[in-house]
């Protein structure tokens, strides 16, 4: 296991290095730059001032030289300065990262729990009314665009009923207690959960139906095991192996989906931070946040591989001894 983890982490750093170059190049090719924005904001800036700012920010150098300078700074622990927020990149990311961790953690946990149990329940009664109802709900959740669902939730719960805030974030210390802070999470968490729970349910149902056809399941039933023992002690663990891959990939999807959801609900998380940094040409902040999203996806894939070995002892990770 340690040798395997070392190899995977080395591969992850290689992928992050390649992605950093690609992202840096794409952002560098975007129209406009921080100096252009400064010039448009202050018409009194002269050409000499603009040239001095270009030299100060290193924008007069080729993009490859700028990337090398940026990479050397990152290797020394300096992610740069955020122009939009007027503070170091790490200081700008910290509160948004905490907010997204709350949002993604709750929605990811709910989507897995609801999706897995709904999939198991549907697979235990295939082609019944319950199965059709669960499938219909799953297809509806998959088909609804996340931004449209978010708008519907705002219209119904905030505009019509007026029971939940339409956006923003609450503070537990502002006097409203835990509910004063939690109520701002209800609609974003609901939107993200509905958007992802359908796929988890469908994959869990398909995997369970396939496993329930195996010979060892019939043997377990012939031994007199109850339905719940057969489902949860024998079938579920084997059915989880293909589902783990989907869950790990959906973790990265949730992060990208949070960009839309956080923008609609004006939730100050990582998704909205990425959007604002790109639209505002905040190069350092955009690079750091996009690379963080890449690293999150790679970590999800690594967690899925480790989960394979935990679910099925027959699976050996490369580098382990038999």
Please describe the structure with a list of short key phrases separated by commas or semicolons.
322 residues; mainly alpha; MetI-like fold; two-stranded antiparallel sheet; 12 helices; 76% helix; 1% strand; globular
Q: Could you walk me through the main structural features you see in this protein, from its secondary elements to its overall organization?
A:
- With 322 residues, the protein is an all-alpha fold.
- It has two domains: 2-79, no CATH class; 93-279, MetI-like (MetI-like fold, Orthogonal Bundle), CATH 1.10.3720.10.
- The protein is built from twelve helices and two strands.
- The protein has a two-stranded antiparallel sheet with strand order 1-2.
- Strand 1 (81-82) and strand 2 (87-88) form a beta hairpin.
- The termini are close together.
- The mean pLDDT is 81.
Ordered list of secondary-structure elements with their pairings:
Blueprint: H1 2-28, H2 34-41, H3 47-57, H4 63-75, E1 81-82, E2 87-88, H5 89-124, H6 129-143, H7 146-160, H8 177-212, H9 215-222, H10 227-264, H11 270-279, H12 283-311
Antiparallel strand pairs: 1-2
Q: Segments where pLDDT lies below 50 for 5+ residues? A: none
Q: What structural class do helix, strand and pairing data support?
A: mainly alpha
The CATH architecture category of the largest domain equals: Orthogonal Bundle
Mean pLDDT across every amino acid position: 81
Cα radius of gyration in angstroms = 24 Å
CATH fold-level label of the largest domain: MetI-like fold
As a percent range, the share of strand residues is under 5%
Q: What's the CATH superfamily of the largest domain, by name? A: MetI-like
What is the helix fraction of residues, given as a range?
A: over 70%
- Distance N to C terminus: 11 Å
- Helix tally equals 12
Overall form:
globular
* Domain unit count: 2
Taking the sheet with the most strands, its summary is:
2 strands, antiparallel
What is the number of E strands? Answer: 2
Which CATH C-level class of the largest domain is it? Mainly Alpha
Largest sheet, spatial ordering of strands: 1-2
Order of helices and strands: HHHHEEHHHHHHHH
